[in-house]
Amino acid sequence: MFDDLDTPCYTPSYYAWVIGVSIPGYLLYVFGIPLFLILTLYGNRYQLTDSSTRQYLGVLYNGYQLKYYYWEVVVMFRKACILCCVTIFYRYGKSVQRTCILLILTISVGAEFSIDPHSKRVIRNLERSSLMIQTLSFAVTG
């Protein structure tokens, strides 16, 4: 809405779009999709090794230890939180956005190292390298 010059901000029309589309879409994307996936995985947690379950849901938990079948939802939530930091703190500037993102990435790195959800060393090293590079990129850029 900031770049659309035809729709003035902070008018009744603007608030109608925010309340009617933006907030429900935000809630659906950030909480609805991960909640749906976690409920689906939780409902099938005893059949995760079955071939039919693996065929349809395996993309969500392959590469993780079976006791951490939900970890892809954690990764999705981390990415959604980073997106939220960018959009919610837009008005406060890049330094506030970067600080928020660094906090999320630091928590993610700590969780990754302490929980160690991956089943293979190669995947573990790739994920950790990716998180460390993201963290360093946000820490170094100004």
Structure in words:
This protein has 142 residues and is mainly α. Helices cover 73% and strands 0% of the residues. It contains five helices and no strands. The model has no long low-confidence stretch (mean pLDDT 90).
- Alpha plus pi helix count: 5
The biggest beta sheet is recorded as:
none
Instruction: Report strand %.
Output: under 5%
Q: Helical residue percent?
A: over 70%
Order of helices and strands: HHHHH
Mean pLDDT: 90
Contiguous runs where pLDDT drops below 50 for at least 5 residues: none
Termini separation: 26 Å
| Overall 3D form | flat
Radius of gyration: 19 Å
Q: Tell how many strands the DSSP assignment holds.
A: 0
Topology:
Blueprint: H1 12-43, H2 51-61, H3 71-88, H4 94-115, H5 121-140
Helix pairs in contact: 1-3, 3-4, 4-5
Short description:
The protein is mainly alpha-helical.
